[in-house]
Design a protein that fits this description.
Layout: H1 4-16, H2 33-58, E1 70-71, H3 80-102, H4 107-130, E2 137-138, H5 139-159, E3 164-170, H6 178-188, H7 192-198, E4 203-210, H8 211-214, E5 224-233, E6 242-244, E7 251-254, E8 261-270, H9 280-289, E9 296-302, E10 305-312
Parallel strand pairs: 1-2
Antiparallel strand pairs: 3-4, 4-5, 5-8, 6-7, 8-9, 9-10
Helix pairs in contact: 1-2, 1-3, 1-9, 2-3, 3-4, 3-5, 4-5
InterPro entries: DUF2279_periplasmic_lipo
Organism: Flavisolibacter ginsenosidimutans
Signal peptide: 1-18
Length: 313
Amino acid sequence: MKKWIFLFLISATIAAHGQDSVSHRVVDSRPNFTARKWLVGGATLGGYGGSFLFLSTAWYKNYPRSSFHTFNDVGEWLQIDKAGHAWTAYQTSRFTTNMWRWTGVENNKALLYGTGSSLLYMLSIEYLDGHSAEWGWSWGDAGADVLGAALYASQELGWEEQRIALKFSSAPKTYAEADLEKRADDLFGRSFQSRLLKDYNAQTYWLSANIKSFFPQTSLPDWLNISVGYGADGMFGGYENFAQSKTNGQVTFDRRDIKRYRQFYLAPDFDFTKIHTKSKMLKSVFSALNVLKFPAPALEFSNGRIKLKAIAF
């Protein structure tokens, strides 16, 4: 959840200036690029500073500090949290790169500044985690951060466009059994927003490929994508559905009877940035919407079975 803060700040900034991922591949001929560079530089530094201030006052202050250390959490949450790290790094790289393009900076420099600042932010959070007794520097998280930024940068360098987008969807859920709902409240929070960001059972991450980018001769619409999704369910703890009190060792939750399992999806999707419009406001809206997978029918592969879902979020 910590990684989302900078993404929200950056997405709000780029939306305010009506930028999209296509229009700034050609350097804007209008003047006042110096002012734009100051604006984007200030927004980036402000995003860093604001998010770090928030984290230090509202997050880390509640946990004891420690010397720098690492820990291995690769097996937690069936790697859904790692997919979230990759998605955040990908999207922040996209937004910040497009912001720098808006300033008139040459494309490769904009890409360097955008992905570089994204990775710097993400890995700085890992460094802070490394000094928290509650967590530690996670090589799994750091690797996912690098992977997400690399997915964006490699496509810009190779194709000068994003043919495969990394997207997110979530459908906050309630749990029928009282002990499961209480456990979900303890782990994921009670509010809609908290459940949206923290309930890994409700999240799906998608690789969404634009068909026409790979097959330009096809008569299919420019905006039509095919996507592959990954999710998981049955998780009420990082590694197992079991919890003990840290003070006296008393068992506080034991539902190891519930199977934890992975879910894979195949579904159509929209590439909103491929919808043609002259409106800067709509381009901005479409660029922002492209962080999300559009709800659509899907095939789900899980527990050795295939089933059709009328709508997959």
